[in-house]
Amino acid sequence: MLRGCLCMGRIPELRSMKASSLKPELYNEISEFFSSVKPDFAISGRMSLYTIYNRLKGAKERLRAKRLKRAEELIRAICAAAEAARDLRAGRMAGAERNGKRGGFTKKNRDQPTLTLHISMEIEAKFAQLGITDRKAMERVLSFIGEEEFSKRHASVLSELPERAYRPFFSSMPDFLTTPRFYEALSSIAQKMRIIDRLAEKRGGAPIGLDYTRDPQALLLTMQHISAAAKLDKVIGEIRPAGMGMEEARRFGELLTDPEMLRSVLERAGFASLSFSGANSYACIRKGRGGALEGITIIDKGVRYSPATVSIMLSQAGVTRKDLKEGLFA
Known about the structure:
This protein is mainly α. The chain contains 15 helices and 3 strands. Helix 9 packs across helix 14 and helix 13 crosses helix 15. The N terminus is likely disordered.
């Protein structure tokens, strides 16, 4: 097992170093690891290694042997990077002292030359459309994925997200474009955005901490965090019949965590349910006049949902409090 104190002496380096300072191979390995064990969490070049280190340590507690070993390897690699940074800084300080005594090189000519990529006006305009204007960020992204892949990802962003979401998001986190499982991660972000929009529509504004136009990091929150902003308990309290105690009403509400009961309530609210995906899931769909789609949600059979997740599913499907009251208490 990995010793808990492995990185303790290197915490200052971890706090000051950014993910973008890692070698591209290690950056990609860490990104791919999180994509497989924690899809809702994505690293960015601006994220500190201390944050990533803590996330890896937290993930260890829930991983099986094979992935646990991989998490420990990545933690060791991050610690080695921090140690290398410390040694490099110590070496530079010693060199500076020696050169100072000898009247030697200035900092300017001790620095190594940097490689500058040529970026066409077309590619630069695409970056600008996403809100990315920092030249170093552009070069970093292109060095990871190349112009052709960047153009594909740029097109997917425009098709999946509205400008109010993608400009603040990518202007603050340009390195998200280098995420290995980018299209899957982008789809997850788009789903979370739609859920937040639905909550904002129902409540007259985004819940506290979920206004992604002001704080783009909200779109990187896990579904568990987002669901906490839409607790079913509050809704059940508002729709319970007169004379019914809260405990009894809560028991009714908890029935919705069962997929069959949830489907039954949606059907009483005017939804039609269809089995699909090898009969492992239900698609619950409600249509209005002229066949216009009014609401849709997917229910997985054999899954016991949390009350907060049920609340989000109902909100996403457009279920009103009247629908819910009639479906539960009629």
